[in-house]
Each structure stands twice: as structure tokens, then as C-alpha cells.
TrEMBL record:
Region Disordered, residue ranges: 315-334
Keyword entries, A-Z: Ligase, Metal-binding, Nucleus, Transferase, Ubl conjugation pathway, Zinc, Zinc-finger
Protein name: G2E3 ligase
Keyword Metal-binding among UniProt keywords: yes
Molecular function GO terms recorded: ligase activity; ubiquitin-protein transferase activity; zinc ion binding
Main localization, broad class: nucleus
A GO cellular component annotation in the UniProt record: nucleus
Location(s), subcellular: Nucleus
InterPro entries in the cross-refs: EPHD, HECT_dom, Hect_E3_ubiquitin_ligase, PHD-type_Zinc_Finger, PHD_PHF7/G2E3-like, PHF7/G2E3_ePHD, Znf_FYVE_PHD, Znf_PHD
The PHD-type domain, residue ranges: 14-131
Listed Gene3D superfamilies: Hect, E3 ligase catalytic domains, Zinc/RING finger domain, C3HC4 (zinc finger)
Pfam families for the chain: HECT (PF00632), PHD_G2E3 (PF26054), zf-HC5HC2H (PF13771)
Keyword Transferase found: yes
């Protein structure tokens, strides 16, 4: 029988788990081992999760991982009466869930005997006789292939230590490799290493006993993990450096400022050492000039730079190559880079733009004074507002196509994608019909609240698409390669759904990367992808190894290490000089980001042609970029105030003043409701659709007792009160209770 240690002899390092009786500290196998002096016990996380007679009855911060101490004591006492069928010792807290099977065992013993533990739902455990197995076709068994994680051979056998991907026919893994991958990637990034499928892959791996932690990837949690990559190249490489302080000396805004090569970014010069009067002048290193000279492209390159200068009124807009970013930056992470010019040229097209126009994950931050930063931020907001106003008018023109004939879609909130797909593919569906949404798992929804239901449907649908296996990346996403989705024509359906959402009053996606947007608008052949467009960590690391090779031997070694990948991508070629790496990196990026997904991209483009959306995108790229590559503007009191037209039926009342004062209180956090709650109460939508509201939102002051939100007319009917306090109390009571009742 396992007893809890006494306080006076509690040894944390050598303490044993109260459920399995072992002192092993192996997080990969048994979960985190934690000792709690205040409770006089030590426990493995997995032992606690899988024990059959205990449930998580407390909150996360109560007891141990939400398991109450009294419950743990009861479970220890219960297990003390049971004998392990493997080691024959007492304390077997885990039992096989198969009916009539009476086998019990410790968690480590179960691992040793190849039992299956499912870390999901009811946390079921299966003994070695009743455990789930993967079914293999006769032609699949036998033979061997590479494990796509460790690249060692894995036998095609129905064995415990071998797992097959449910979404790819020829993808096999070692169980141990998959478990390490899951612990590292976490629930957000753990997916098939071949086709990038997430949902189907995770479901099968959980069924087969792989533990997937509900946290961000390990590379996102490590502080300053990419700090070394933020260093810009700062060294003068000209034959005769004239700087007395040395080749590494760099003094900004002087003749001793280091300018990097505009083509490769891996060579530099002091301005004075190359007789440059201004940092705005172009400069290329000897290696790049020789390449252009041999290929005959040097004169063309020179003409292009002059043409660009003319477009910008004689001011050359050069984007100095920034230090590379993480392949998958975590949301909210900040990467700052110094630019040589207050203007930059967008990497994927030739139109000049300010640095703040770029989407979140593609943005290059400038080191400016607070005054300049605030001014640019204000300009950016102004530009975005103008462009969103422009796109609103364009979408209203497209909405004229929508007729009054209705098409009803039966939607299950819990399975939004499947039910939406079924609705869009039904015979009588037409994008020009008015869409009516009926939520099948919502009994009390009002029949007249069609616009609210429609907006909620499109909002859920856009959220699903953003997190689906059709896209990859963190905040700014590109298309991924999902062979099953290509086979089922899902990329076309995704494009069609986005087009219909934009025209029918749903939200815009807001998660397109600049590269994806430019491929759709200008064509993939006219787009140059960047390293940050690569979502696959291994591919990104391969590109970085090649890109930052500092000698010919290290470059050749890096190419040799990944020669199979390069050959499969059609990028393998002999290198004779270090500068060859730039063309190689460019080829890999074009293959991985564009050529690899050319079939999904074309299907997606065809879907976006619905209702003429793609054509308008190509005619007005700046306007549509504001809604497809940027998240909607956060609501403010001013935005809500400007949105509504006030009609008063009683002269000289203070209602309008009370309304504006109330919006200020809500916006500053002095209220129990939010601005989104107010908009939802009135219109059924918590955000402003890209096409705007139809009809235009209005406010009426009437002699009524409580506020009324008429979602059919987008009209807010407000009571006339004597004091602001009465007005605020009535607003908060009504809005809070109405929304609470709807949620319930």
C-alpha cells in the first residue's frame, strides 16, 4: 500500500508517486512529476489523469491540476486494494474500460505492456488485449519506409510502436517520434508532417494514445528564441576600408553608416568607402554585380531601379533586407527592424506604401521618434478607413445582384463546416438568392431575426476557415497543401464562401497574407514570397541554413544535408560560389509557397469569382487589401456614434446627450456591457460588416419604459428619461438580460 510521506522526512528528489509507486522523473513518458510539500505527496500528471476512480471536480487552481486533495486520497485508498496484473503489486489505479475486463495496472506498467491510454473525453484506458489498433490493407503491410520525423526506417507492421497517418497513404511514424513531436508542437501546431492535415490527424493520434498538450508550441514559448536572427549584417566588405575605427564600425546618419547590398543583403560598405553621398543611393556588392553582368540582367536591374525612382518623385524607396523572422511567430510578438528610409517598397508589388500598411505578420517596424510613429499610425488609420469606405461602396454595387428569393440553410453550430458545405452544395442554392439561416440546435430563435442569424453563421464560418487545414501560418495565412481537400474541391468552396460572406453582409476573413492576396490579384508568376511565408518549421530551418551560410563549404554541406528535399522540389543544382545561395533560396521559396499549392490556389481563385468578387479585387487591390489582410477596426464610442442616425420624436429632450455620454462610459470601461454588446443588441452583429448595414442603423427616442433593439430595421428605440443615471441603468439592465437570455 502506498502511503503519503510525512512532512518531516519529505524528500522531493527521491519521493515516489502515490499512484504508481515509482520515483522516475520522465515527463515524456509519465507526464510532469510534481511534489507538493503542503499536501505531503508526489504524483505523475499522467497517473493522475488516467486513474479510473477520480475526476477533476475543482477549478484549475484548486488542489492539483483541478483534482481535489480529498479525492486523491480516496483514489489512493481505492487503488491500494487492487493488484496490478503486470507487476503483481498493489496500487493499480487504472482499469481497462472494456466491459467484463477486470484487468488493473499502474500507468508505467501499462506503458511497458503496450496498453493504450486516450488523453481525451473520458480518458479511457485499454489493456493489451482490448486496445484499439489501426486497420491496414493487405498491400500496405510489409516493406518499410522513412519515418518523416526522424528519417529512420520504419517497418509497415500493425505494431504498437508503429503508427500510420490517417490522411496520407505512405506516411508512417515511430510512436516515440510522434509523441515527442506532439509535446513540442502542442495542440495548435501538431499535424501530419506530409499533408499538413490537423483535425483528422489529431483525432486518430489521440485514439491511438498520443498525448497532445493544450498549449502553444515550445518554440513559441521560449523567451528570445529568435534573438540571434534579429541581427542585421554590419561589416564593410570593400577592398579598401577607409574607416579608422575598423570595418565593423557603424555610425547611423553619417558617412560611416554601413549600407547593405540591395540584392543579397549579406555584404556591406561604409557610405564613404564606396563614395556614396547619401544612404538613399543603390549599392550592390561585387559578387551580385558579377552575377548580373554574366546573366545580362545588370542593365535591366539598373533600368528598373531608375523606373522605381521616377515613380516616387525622384526618391528611391529601398527596403533593406530585414533580419529573418520566426517561421511561425506567436501572436502579439514584436519584431523591430531598422530601415534606412522612412518609406519602403512593398516586397510583393511595385506600389510604394508606408510600413504601417502591411499586415501584422508581414510588417516591418521602423525605429522612429514617438511623434513620427503617432503621425504614421494616424495616417494608417485614416488610409484604412478610406479604403474600407471604398470597398463598402463596391460591395454594395455587387449586392444589387442579390434578389428576394430565399434559400434556407440548416446549420449545426457544433459542425459548422459540414453543414455549411452541405448547404452550399444543395441543388437549389444560388449565391444570388437571399440566404436564410436556421440553426438546427437552437430551438427558440426568432423567425424574424434572419440578419442576426446570417451574420452569426458567416462569423462562425470565417473563424472555422481561418483555423482549418486549408490555410497555414499564424496570423497572416497562406494556402496549405491538403490533398484530400483538393480531391473534394474544398478550396473552391472556401473561396465561394468568402465571396458570398462579403456580399451578403458577413464579416471579412482578415487573415490573408500579403503574398496570398497578391497571388490572387496579380497572379502567382508576379509574386516574390518571403521567408516568413513558410509555415513549415523544418523547411524554414532548411532555408535559413542555406541563406545564412557564410562560406562555400558550409553552403555545400547544408545543400548535401537536404539534397533529397531539394531534388523533390526541383531546386537541386551545383553551387560554385557563395552568392549562388540567393538564387537557390528564391527557388525554394517560390516552390514551397507558390508552385506547391498552384492547384489549390487556382481552385480558390475560381471560388472567389462568385458574384464578381475576384474581378473587383483585381480592379481595386488597395481597397480589398484593407479587409482581407487586416482585422476589422476595433469598435470605439466615436465609430458607434457615427454609425447611427438619430431621429427624435420629442423636441428639446436630452436623449442624444445621454446616448453619447453612455457610449463614452462603455468605451472607457465604466459599464458592465461592451460596445460590441450594444451593436449586437441592436443589429444582431457584434462587428460592422464590410458591406455595411442594410438598412442604415437609426435611433429613435420614444415614450417607452425600456430600450428596444429592432434587428429587422437596425433601429434602437430609447426611452426618454429625466436623468442620465436612469438612462444608463435601463440600458445596462436591458442589454445584459437580453444577451444573457439569448446565450442561454
Amino acid at each position: 500500500e502506498f502511503r503519503m510521506s510525512k512532512p518531516n522526512n519529505f524528500d522531493i528528489q527521491n519521493s515516489f508517486c502515490v499512484l504508481c509507486g515509482r520515483t522516475d522523473d520522465c515527463p515524456e513518458k509519465y507526464g510532469e512529476k510534481k511534489s507538493y510539500v503542503e499536501y505531503n505527496l508526489t504524483v505523475h500528471y499522467y497517473c493522475l489523469l488516467m486513474s479510473s476512480g477520480i475526476w477533476q471536480r475543482g477549478e484549475e487552481d484548486e488542489g492539483i491540476y483541478g483534482f481535489l486533495i480529498t479525492d486523491i486520497r480516496k483514489e489512493v485508498n481505492r487503488a491500494a486494494k487492487l493488484t496490478c496484473n503486470i507487476c503483481k503489486k498493489k496500487g493499480a489505479s487504472i482499469g481497462c474500460v472494456t466491459p467484463k475486463c477486470k484487468r488493473s495496472y499502474h500507468f508505467p506498467c501499462g506503458i511497458q505492456r503496450e496498453c493504450i491510454f486516450q488523453f481525451m473525453e473520458d480518458f479511457r484506458s485499454y489493456c493489451w488485449e482490448h486496445k484499439p489498433v489501426q486497420t491496414l490493407m493487405d498491400k500496405e503491410s510489409g516493406g518499410a519506409s522513412q519515418c518523416t520525423i526522424c528519417l529512420d526506417l520504419v517497418d509497415h507492421l500493425p505494431a504498437y510502436n508503429v503508427l500510420k497517418s490517417p490522411c496520407c497513404k505512405n506516411a508512417w511514424f515511430h510512436r516515440e517520434c510522434l509523441q515527442y513531436q506532439a509535446l513540442s508542437a502542442g495542440i495548435f501546431f501538431f499535424r501530419c508532417t506530409v499533408c499538413n492535415n490537423k483535425d483528422k490527424f489529431q483525432k486518430e493520434m489521440l485514439r491511438m494514445g498520443i498525448y497532445i498538450p493544450e498549449r502553444d508550441a515550445s518554440w513559441e514559448l521560449e523567451e528570445n528564441a529568435y534573438q540571434d536572427l534579429l541581427q542585421c549584417y554590419q561589416h564593410c566588405d570593400v577592398k579598401r576600408c577607409r574607416c579608422k575605427e575598423g570595418r565593423d564600425y557603424n555610425e547611423p546618419d553619417s558617412k560611416w553608416e554601413i549600407k547593405r547590398c540591395q540584392s543579397c543583403g549579406s555584404r556591406g560598405t561604409h557610405l564613404a568607402c564606396s563614395s556614396m553621398k547619401s544612404r538613399e543611393e543603390n549599392w550592390e556588392c561585387v559578387e551580385c554585380r558579377s552575377i548580373f553582368a554574366k546573366s545580362g540582367k545588370y542593365s535591366k536591374q539598373k533600368k528598373r531601379s531608375w523606373a522605381t525612382s521616377e515613380k516616387t518623385n525622384g526618391t528611391t524607396c529601398l527596403l533593406e533586407e530585414p533580419s529573418p523572422k520566426s517561421a511561425r511567430p506567436s501572436s502579439g510578438s514584436q519584431r523591430s527592424f531598422l530601415l534606412q528610409s522612412p518609406k519602403i517598397m512593398c516586397q510583393n508589388n511595385l506600389s510604394p506604401c508606408t510600413h504601417l500598411e502591411r499586415p501584422a505578420s508581414n510588417r516591418v517596424m521602423m525605429a522612429l521618434s514617438p511623434l513620427m510613429s503617432h503621425r504614421n499610425w494616424s495616417q494608417r488609420q485614416k488610409h484604412l478607413k478610406e479604403r474600407r469606405r471604398e470597398v463598402r461602396n463596391i460591395l454594395k454595387e455587387l449586392k444589387v445582384q442579390v434578389n428576394t428569393k430565399t434559400t434556407r440553410l440548416n446549420i449545426n453550430r457544433e459542425n459548422i463546416w459540414t453543414s455549411a458545405l452541405k448547404g452550399f452544395r444543395q441543388r437549389n442554392f444560388s449565391p444570388t438568392n437571399t440566404i436564410e439561416i436556421h440553426f438546427t440546435n437552437c430551438k427558440n430563435r426568432s423567425k424574424t431575426d434572419t440578419s442576426a442569424s446570417r451574420h452569426q453563421f458567416f462569423q462562425l464560418l470565417m473563424l472555422h476557415l481561418q483555423n482549418s487545414s486549408l490555410f497555414e501560418g499564424s496570423s497572416a495565412k497562406n494556402l496549405s497543401l491538403d490533398f484530400q481537400a483538393v480531391k473534394e474541391n474544398l478550396y473552391f468552396e472556401a473561396g465561394r464562401m468568402i465571396a458570398v460572406s462579403l456580399v451578403h453582409g458577413g464579416p471579412s476573413p482578415g487573415f490573408f497574407s500579403k503574398t496570398l492576396f497578391n497571388c490572387l490579384v496579380y497572379g502567382p508568376e508576379n509574386v516574390k514570397p518571403a521567408l516568413e511565408d513558410v509555415a513549415d518549421v523544418d523547411v524554414a530551418q532548411t532555408i535559413k541554413t542555406i541563406k545564412y551560410a557564410n562560406s562555400l563549404s558550409s553552403l555545400q554541406s547544408a545543400i548535401h544535408d537536404c539534397c533529397e528535399f531539394l531534388a523533390a522540389a526541383g531546386c537541386l543544382r551545383p553551387v560554385t560560389a557563395l552568392c549562388d545561395k540567393n538564387m537557390l533560396v528564391n527557388d525554394i521559396l517560390i516552390h514551397h509557397v507558390i508552385k506547391r499549392i498552384i492547384s489549390p490556389l487556382e481552385s480558390f481563385r475560381q471560388g472567389l469569382k462568385t458574384l464578381g468578387v475576384l474581378e473587383k479585387m483585381q480592379m481595386h487591390p488597395d481597397a480589398f487589401s484593407s479587409i482581407l489582410c487586416h482585422k476589422p477596426e476595433r469598435l470605439s464610442a466615436e465609430i458607434i456614434c457615427d454609425l447611427f442616425t438619430i431621429h427624435s420624436s420629442v423636441r428639446e429632450n436630452k436623449g442624444a446627450d445621454f446616448w453619447m455620454a453612455y457610449l463614452q462610459d462603455v468605451g472607457s470601461g465604466e459599464s458592465v456591457v461592451t460596445l460590441e454588446d450594444i451593436l449586437l443588441f441592436i443589429t444582431g452583429s457584434s462587428s460592422i460588416p464590410s458591406v455595411g448595414f442594410d438598412p442604415e442603423p437609426t435611433i429613435k427616442f420614444l415614450r417607452i419604459k425600456y430600450p428596444v433593439g429592432n434587428r429587422l430595421l437596425n433601429c434602437l428605440e430609447l426611452p426618454i428619461t429625466k436623468t442620465y443615471k436612469q438612462f444608463k441603468n435601463k440600458m445596462e439592465l436591458t442589454i445584459r438580460n437580453t444577451l444573457r437570455a439569448e446565450r442561454e
